[in-house]
Amino acid sequence: MPVLAGVPVGIKDVLAMQGTPATAGSLILKGYRPPYDATAVTRLEAAGAVLLGKLNFEKEFRNTQARPEGNETVITAEPKSDNLPYSRVEFTVAPSFEIRRLRMANLDQTTLEFAFEAEKLNPPLANSLFQFQAPAGAEVVNEGGSG
User: Fold this and answer.
1) β-bridge pairing 50-54 and 8-11
2) How far apart are CA 118 and CA 91, in angstroms?
3) For residues 8 and 101, which has the higher predicted lDDT (pLDDT)?
4) 3-state helix, strand, coil in the chain (%, to 5)
5) Whole-number pLDDT of residue 67
6) Secondary structure (3-state) at 13
7) Cα distance between residue 57 and residue 7, in whole Å
8) pLDDT tens for residues 130-143?
9) SS3 sequence, 62-119?
10) Are 66 and 75 in contact (CB under 8 A)?
11) pLDDT value for 68
């Protein structure tokens, strides 16, 4: 099983995700949709991560709503992009602003749910855990170094 199998990951807006707006926070890139994925995105996918989209929540989601649930807050939203495999996300956020639960309603009518407890921030991981495997028949082009 891949090291990040099923782990939900948000991608910073400075990283390219094929077909998804990438502005790096700059108006000069407004409307730019890269025709490729950044190496980091490709490696996250190869490691089994579930890519949620970009981290600029207001730009990437619509119909955002928040409601209290006990001492936590539940935030729901729908993606603006049609290029993502889900139709709705729901985050449960603790008073400390940590995400405690994530639920994704997928386009195929399935639901993925993740619960987070005692999460470690930036744990040390060996680079060998993030190995890219080119699809059969694909040519790997390595420009400018050992990348």
Assistant:
1) parallel
2) 17
3) 101
4) 10, 35, 55
5) 93
6) coil
7) 19
8) 777 777 888 877 76
9) EEEEEEEECCEEEEEEEECCCCCCEEEEEEEECCCCCEEEEEEEECCCCEEEEECCCC
10) yes
11) 94
